Structures are given as structure tokens and as C-alpha cells.
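Ops channel
N.P.: pipeline sanity check, posting one input/output pair.
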């Protein structure tokens, strides 16, 4: 029983850092296109981000520099926050 518990403790400790990688990532870039009807934001590098329901446009327009916090869901980038940089 003691061996089982110690093995579980070791596995728990070793797998804990993996959860840090599941956290949202952040990227900065220049807006290429924004579609409020499709709820997408595309950066100049061609990466498209799906915007969350209830997203309030802070005044996005082509050429604007932004910071996007996002999660990867499958092969899609799902934006959590979008901030215009000055």
C-alpha cells in the first residue's frame, strides 16, 4: 500500500507542470481583418482567432496593434481577451 501511495504521489508531482501549459497563451500582432458578424479577428501573420460570445469591440481596425490571450481548442485559436496596444 505504501508503494502504491508513493507512486501516486510521484505521478501527481510529475504531471502537475503539464497543467501550466494548458493555461491561456498570449500573442501580440497587427490586425489584418476583423469581422463582427463572423466573430473572428485575423492578424497580419494570417492567424485567425475566434472571439468569445458577448465580445465588445474596443475599436478594432486594420493596422491596429493588439495583444490577444487565447486557448487552443483542437486546431482553433479561441480568444479570451483582446487589448489594443498603444
Amino acid at each position: 500500500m505504501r508503494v502504491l501511495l508513493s507512486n501516486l504521489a510521484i505521478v501527481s508531482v510529475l504531471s502537475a507542470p503539464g497543467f501550466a501549459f494548458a493555461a491561456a497563451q498570449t500573442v501580440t500582432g497587427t490586425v489584418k481583418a476583423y469581422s463582427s458578424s463572423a466573430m473572428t479577428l485575423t492578424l497580419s501573420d494570417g492567424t485567425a482567432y475566434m472571439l468569445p460570445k458577448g465580445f465588445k469591440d474596443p475599436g478594432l481596425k486594420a493596422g491596429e496593434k493588439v495583444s490577444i490571450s487565447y486557448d487552443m481548442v483542437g486546431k482553433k485559436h479561441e480568444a479570451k481577451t483582446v487589448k489594443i496596444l498603444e
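N.P.: looks fine end to end. The first strand starts at residue 25 and ends at 35.
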